[in-house]
Amino acid sequence: MSSKKTEAPRKIAADNRRARFDYEIGEVFEAGIALTGTEVKSLRTGKATIAESYAAQKSGEMWLYNAYIPEYLEANRFNHETRRPRKLLLHKRQISKLGHAVEREGMTVVPLKIYFNDRGRAKVEIAIARGRKSHDKREALKEKSWERDKARLMRDRG
C-alpha cells in the first residue's frame, strides 16, 4: 500500500486556456485570493473570466487585475464591483520572487485558473510567463498537431 495521497478533483471556477498558447509558462504558484461573499457565490456558478487578467506587485503585495467575476444576481444592493483589483495571498518570499522576475527578466505574472480546493477555499494558480512571438505560436501549434498525429498513429498500430 502506498502512502501517496490521492488528489480530490478540484472544482474549476475559471480557466485561462489561452495563457498556455500566448505565453511560455515558467514556475507555477498557488495563491489564495481575498474575496467578498457575493464574489465567492458568483464564482461557484463558474461564469468568471480571467482571460485578459494579470497579477502585479504593488506596495509589497500581489494584486490580481482585470479578472471578471459577474455580479451575483440574488445579492441586489450588496453586490461587488465586477473588475475590481483583488488581493492575492502569498508568502513574502514568493511575492519578492515574482516581483524580481517581472522587473529583471521582463516576465509577466499570468493567472492560469481559479478553483476551489478540497476545503472549499478559492485559490488562484498563477505562473511566471514570457510572452510568445507569433512565429513561436505557429511552432507550438505545429508541435502540438504532430504530437496528436503521432499518438493517433501509435494507437492505430498498437
Automatic annotation (TrEMBL):
Pfam families: SmpB. It comes from the Bacteria. Its main location: cytoplasm. One of its GO terms (molecular function) is RNA binding. One of its GO terms (biological process) is trans-translation. The keyword RNA-binding applies. It is found in: Cytoplasm. InterPro entries: SmpB, SsrA-bd_prot, SsrA-bd_prot_CS. The keyword Transmembrane helix does not apply. PANTHER family: SSRA-BINDING PROTEIN, TMRNA-BINDING COMPONENT OF TRANS-TRANSLATION TAGGING COMPLEX. Required for rescue of stalled ribosomes mediated by trans-translation. Binds to transfer-messenger RNA (tmRNA), required for stable association of tmRNA with ribosomes. tmRNA and SmpB together mimic tRNA shape, replacing the anticodon stem-loop with SmpB. tmRNA is encoded by the ssrA gene; the 2 termini fold to resemble tRNA(Ala) and it encodes a 'tag peptide', a short internal open reading frame. During trans-translation Ala-aminoacylated tmRNA acts like a tRNA, entering the A-site of stalled ribosomes, displacing the stalled mRNA. Belongs to the SmpB family. This is SsrA-binding protein. It comes from Xanthobacter tagetidis. The gene is smpB.
